[in-house]
Amino acid sequence: MQVHTAEIQTTMGGLDWRAYLPRLLRFWRTSLQFRTVAITVVLSGIAVIVIGSYMSISIGNNLYDTRLAQVQSESNNATSIAQQTFDNSQATNDQVVELDSVGLAVKNNILSSVRSPGSTSMGLLRIPGQQTDRIMTSVTSTGFETGLVSQGMRDAVAKQGGFIHTQSVTLAKGEPGIIAGSLITVPSAGLYELFLVYDLSDAQTTLNFVQNTLAIGSLALVLLIGAVTYIVVRLVVGPIRLAAETSEKLAAGQLTERIPERGQDVIATLARSFNRMADSLQQQISKLAELSRVQQRFVSDVSHELRTPLTTIRLAGDVLYDQRDDFPPATSRTAELLHTQVMRFELLLADLLEISRYDAGAVELELEPTNLVRLVEDAVETMRPVADERGSDLRVVAPGGYFEAEVDARRIRRILRNLLGNAVEHGEGRPIVVTVDSNATAIALAVRDYGVGMRENEIGRVFDRFWRADPSRKRTIGGTGLGLAISLEDAVLHGGALEVWSEPGVGSCFRLTLPREHGTAIGSSPLELPPDDTIAAEEDERA
Predict the structure, then answer these.
(1) For 97-129, what is each residue's pLDDT tens digit?
(2) Are residues 428 and 480 located together in one domain of the fold?
(3) What secondary structure does DSSP assign to 324-356, as a single string?
(4) For the chain, how many structural domains are there in total?
């Protein structure tokens, strides 16, 4: 049960981190105020740490240097007292001197003369290997540990006896300390090393207090800098945030939104300039919208008004066309031209009306489940006579899959007619392949020709209204110049995409991709652009 509880706690802790980290990153990216305060606090913290570390090291070195100077002074004084005591005992006593008693007296004199803030211990150690008349027993005070003195220091004191040698050590309780060593000459007993141990815990306590004070002060300073930065940034970022929100509302179409103007500072100047810009944009957009409405109304009205005389002209033209065999050759040819141009004029009017509906946003879909393979086959059969006249062979390739989709069949059939007509027009009598395929989310059809193709700069304009890659090239199958533009509008209306690929001398391919269910995402298209031509090649081999 304990293991299970621990696992739950670990999992919960991991989930918390994984859940909050993306939010924190997103908040970092989206909040200028948070980012500015965080960067200021971090940089201020780094600066305070550097300055505090420098001050702490400087104060620590100063305390150590001051204490070291005191230690050297006291050690020099203790060495003088010890040497003087031994010298006086020899000068005033012609008999055998009790050296051990003198050594104890030296210890007492030294300990009483040293006025160190910390506890002090001493040791008077004989240098080994000496041949003397007498030997004085080494003298140590309470708390002196011989192991604290390194062999290197003993050798340095023995070789350079005229100097005070010091060494930093760690005392028994882990407290810092200093050992000072010097050389003493004991009459008739040889050379001895005098070591004094000084406890630096008082200096360490002072340094700890200074470091804690610096740490608390630094933390308070960083927090204060963060608070001041937050207040200042809030004063600056607040109006900027308001301007951003107002800009988003303007972009969403709420053209009456404005920034409140307060004061005479830079922010107020920005608000006034922004509001003047918004007023100008609103006026221009209103003018453009009105011009667009006038244009749409004009196209729609003209198209409707032209239908009545066009109907009369068509009826009269049909009568003349039906009786063209009875006319002279020139009159008969005129009747045929009249019939052809009236039909083209009627198609142009229909396309103009359709474009005006798209421009006015008055187009609605009539969706129904449709088998696109059947629809493609019907469209191909309709265009086959025209293709046969141009020498182009129409082929349908349907590898298999889910071919039923929720579409407006009339509009998709119109797209196919436009794409097929464009392929026949520019296919140079070569084969035209229509490929249909689908996946679980999308269905696609592609019309591939092997004609003249287009250059890269022409591909970007292929869906423009009334645009032709070659203006000198005459339309031979009665196109109006609006077919591809209307096809693109139909594709977008379905939530799909109409894309084009082309290379000069290789041909062109138009790919229409639609969602299987209206309103859902397409994902990836079932067909490549251009489709793989190996399928068509295999059909050629089988044929």
Answers:
(1) 466 676 677 767 776 665 555 557 888 888 888
(2) yes
(3) GGGS-HHHHHHHHHHHHHHHHHHHHHHHHHHHH
(4) 4
| Residue 43, both tokens | 């940089």
Indicate if 274 and 403 belong to the same structural domain.
no
pTM: 0.49
By CB atoms closer than 10 A (0-12, 13-18, 19+), residue 348 is middle
Strands (E), 398-455: 404-407, 432-438, 442-449
Q: Is the pLDDT confidence value at 353 over 50? A: yes
Burial class (CB within 10 angstroms; exposed 0-12, middle 13-18, buried 19+) of 384: middle
Does some domain include residue 286? Answer: yes
Q: 298 and 415 share a domain?
A: no
Tell whether 143 and 92 lie within a shared domain. yes
Structure-derived torsion over alpha carbons of residues 105, 106, 112, 114, reported in degrees to the nearest 10: -170
Q: First vs last Cα of the chain: how many Å apart? A: 75
pLDDT at 96: 38
**457 and 524 fall within a common domain:** yes
Q: What is the mean pLDDT of residues 222-238?
A: 86
Alpha helices of 161-265 — where are they, by DSSP H?
A: 201-251
Taking the C-alpha atoms of residue 395 and residue 391, their distance in angstroms, rounded to an integer, is 13
Please check whether residue 469 is in contact with residue 480, taking contact to mean a CB–CB distance below 8 angstroms. Answer: no
At 150 the three-state DSSP class reads coil
**Shared-domain flag, residues 59 and 1:** no
What residues contact residue 82 under an 8 Å CB cut-off, 6+ apart?
Answer: 106, 109, 110, 124, 184, 194
Confidence of residue 403 (pLDDT cuts 50, 70, 90): low
For 21, the domain range is 1-26
pLDDT of residue 294: 76
288/290 Cα distance (integer angstroms): 5
Flag whether pLDDT at 70 surpasses 80: yes
Measure the CA–CA gap between 399 and 495, rounded to whole angstroms: 24
Higher confidence at residue 284 or residue 400? 284
Q: Do 379 and 319 sit in the same domain of this protein? A: no
The answer on 347 and 212 residing in a single domain is no
